[in-house]
């Protein structure tokens, strides 16, 4: 199908409301537009550069946990949660009570991302995987009563009420067929379509179907990174688009509505591919900055520790690259030493400017690796 001739669907009359019924999307998708072809090439090259950094950096999985945390907080912001990346690494008891529901949703999103990426070893990218990830996403949160892990069996909508909705997705009787079609678009190798075009269209289609009662926005954005990892376009899950979507939230929503109402698929693809290129280059830049920061600490800070404490200090630093907010007890468990030894090392890292104490208390103090956190803000 030529992108310029795409018709997104039609409104279907239901009882006292109209629901949007999208067209099926399992087609060959031809890109004949010069700008789109150029954008696809640039996005591909940016992903290649990001892959190169991901393969060069030792202990890359520690650093990727920061990308996961950033994705969780930024994706949550699109949905209205207010948890920041620093708070994502705190325990619930370290937060004000009114902030804990938002924090719990971010924690579930982090678990859902890690679960989904880890599950690629046993499952292909599929509706089964999306359902299992959705169950993790909603477990124990405000959406726990909204059919976690199952496609919806009732009508949903975007807006304050069904009568005054900004958008009404298809009736639930269509969801299974539409999601099967989406799954085939992403997996059918007998049809020609660039993987980035497939996932751009699939993300739009997923949000249009809105197959779950809750969590569609978060899961639809997670699905992008999951697909890139499943197809090998990303060697490591180090690219997440929620920050780009959150910074361009109005354009993000407007582009998807423009596809539904006017068939403006080309404009959505331009927006999406710009996001892939921009985000991949930014992520590669973050990896460059991580390398410089790590080299500075390895060269200027760690050699100041005595031979007896050096290995423990290195272990603690390794842990901080995955979890840059820590207290003495967690540090002790992370490195397997006594509380006196780890307290002394933390104090030395504070003196060296690596860690900052943020509570101002004498007990239950929290320490933050601020220079590292700043790279992800």
From TrEMBL:
Residues 125-274 form the Fido domain. The keyword ATP-binding applies. The keyword ATP-binding applies. It comes from the Bacteria. SUPFAM superfamilies: Fic-like. ATP binds at residues 79, 210, 214-221, 252. One of its GO terms (molecular function) is ATP binding. InterPro entries: Fic/DOC_N, Fido, Fido-like_dom_sf, Fido_containing, SoFic-like. PROSITE patterns: FIDO (PS51459). Pfam families: Fic, Fic_N. The active site is at residue 210. Keywords: ATP-binding, Nucleotide-binding. This is Cell filamentation protein Fic. It comes from Ereboglobus luteus.
